[in-house]
Amino acid sequence: xxxxxxxxxxxxxxxxxxxxxxxxxxxxxxxxxxxxxxxxxxxxxxxxxxxxxxxxxxxxxxxxxxxxxxxxxxxxxxxxxxxxxxxxxxxxxxxxxxxxxxxxxxxxxxxxxxxxxxxxxxxxxxxxxxxxxxxxxxxxxxxxxxxxxxxxxxxxxxxxxxxxxxxxxxxxxxxxxxxxxxxxxxxxxxxxxxxxxxxxxxxxxxxxxxxxxxxxxxxxxxxxxxxxxxxxxxx
Length: 235
Hints:
By secondary structure, the chain is mainly α. It has helices at residues 2-14, 17-38, 46-64, 69-73, 77-82, 87-110, 124-151, 155-178, 184-192, 194-202, 208-234. It has one domain (2-234). It has eleven helices and no strands. Helix 3 (46-64) runs parallel beside helix 7 and helix 8 (155-178) runs antiparallel to helix 9. The longest helix is centred in the middle third of the chain and has 28 residues, at 124-151. The mean pLDDT is 86.
């Protein structure tokens, strides 16, 4: 797994993809930070992280679209399948490379808020809760992206498919808001909603059930990816 992880992480910087991702992410994060805090003269971090959640739904597929689709297109997939590594290790190695990229740039961009310390009383518990929430959402989004990439040899199709599934998950919360609050379906939709659970952390509260939810959903998509390659290896 470690060899796959190192190879994938290195591949982001041997080509343009890693640099493009970093530049776009940090630039957009900087603009959103300025708009939600500096220009509005506010120390509220929640709006920034909510917008970054929506932005991540679009930018993270750029990071994951090549994960497996490039292997299929370049005909190197069989080398992976015959390599002396478990399928779980192969999938986790690729997933972790993408996640480390995302986690690193997320933490780095969050340092923007240190600029506010001389001017306002920054609530660090809320800031940490928002960072953790975004990292957990990224875990889910990257898990989805890795799974979709395993289904296609076209990177653009993988990116579009990932965005579609992510938007579907985000739409669950919107559908829930349209259902009467006393109807049982409302509770089901709220329980499945990525966005509504995100709001718990952004308020500065640690919710164990939300943590388990995010880790479970992301892990399910990674498990599905392993199953995809298990069928190809034995098919």
